[in-house]
Amino acid sequence: MRNLVALLRRVWALEAESSPSDRCVAFASISGEAQSFFLRESGRIEMLQPQTEDLQASSLDLQLFLDLREFVEPSGTDEDSAGCWKWMNYVAELGMLVCASTSGALVTVDVDAIDGEEVGAVDVGLRALAWSGNQEMLALVTGTGRLLVMSNDWEVLHETEIESCLPSDVMLSHSTKDDEHWRCELCWREDSQFVALNIATKAKPKGETQVGNDVAVQKVLVFTAQLEFHALGRLEDGRAITKLGSALDWSQSMSLIASCETRRSRLFVVFFERNGLRHGEFEIPSVYRPPAYRVGSLRWNVSSDILAVSLLPTSIGEENGDVRQSVVQLWTRNNYHWYLKQELRLGVENQLVDFAWDEEAAGRPNARNCNYNIRLNQPKVD
């Protein structure tokens, strides 16, 4: 059985001038460069560019890079027309950062020129966004439940109505931007031939006078790159999965789609094949039980031999003084069994923002929370 040993752990406190209420929601880095960029809900982008002599420091200063609100045309009288900024990716094909808000604003940022441009706007808002592995296509879920694929020069190539691909007794859960079910998850297969979606649904009313069931049920759907419906996530006997979570990630080896499930008051990581059949799972240790914890995100490393699972505390139980930490677990597989190899606990006051693997070094993870940047340099896998 292989062991995963951290050779070096670096933690930097991030000092910023932003208001503590202006949460950091995403980060991006340029492969081979020391620069990292942090996006806040307001649209502020802050940059971290440590020099060699800074690597031994205990804290690093975040510098204001630019403010996305300067490049978005206001709509009507709403001063916050750009909405809440949520997504930021560095697209090497364009040599730019691409940022998006829940209100549908799309802005590109030229890193060298330190300049931005609004390249489009989705009037009905955005619920999810994901770039294909080759960065030639961008998948979007709109606020009205349409799935779009665009080219990297912003031309709509394909689109479909998601609800038309659901079973006849199920409809999309049309939530508001402030609802926890507004955001959904998109991910591409590494070869950019398929895209998977995890989105909240609910049962349709059975009659004109009957009120529908408002309980949200997550569904996993698989589409081709041309948005032809390919498969619906289900058990091997064809039954639906009633307690699926919202996390989703497709392994770099293209074989498994990872998601999560709540069952018997326990959290599970579950796997789907491309045909939608659920195939395999492992159980999260019982100390992280729902509803006190939920799975925040799942991230495969580039060689698909390590799966990172972020566990986020909920507000349930806090009134009793039960204070909990965010956790990132690293799991490996051997002979179809999964083993927990590392566990990274974050400070009680610092909730996890995002987690990403290094694109070049298969065993180098990076975790960012509200106040810290944490890197495990090349864990050794025996």
From TrEMBL:
GO BP: tRNA wobble base 5-methoxycarbonylmethyl-2-thiouridinylation
Gene Ontology molecular function, alphabetical: tRNA binding
Coiled-coil positions: none
Gene Ontology CC annotation, any one: cytosol
Short name of one Pfam family: Beta-prop_ELP1_1st
Ranges where the ELP1 first N-terminal beta-propeller domain occurs: 1-164, 177-360
Descriptive protein name: ELP1 first N-terminal beta-propeller domain-containing protein
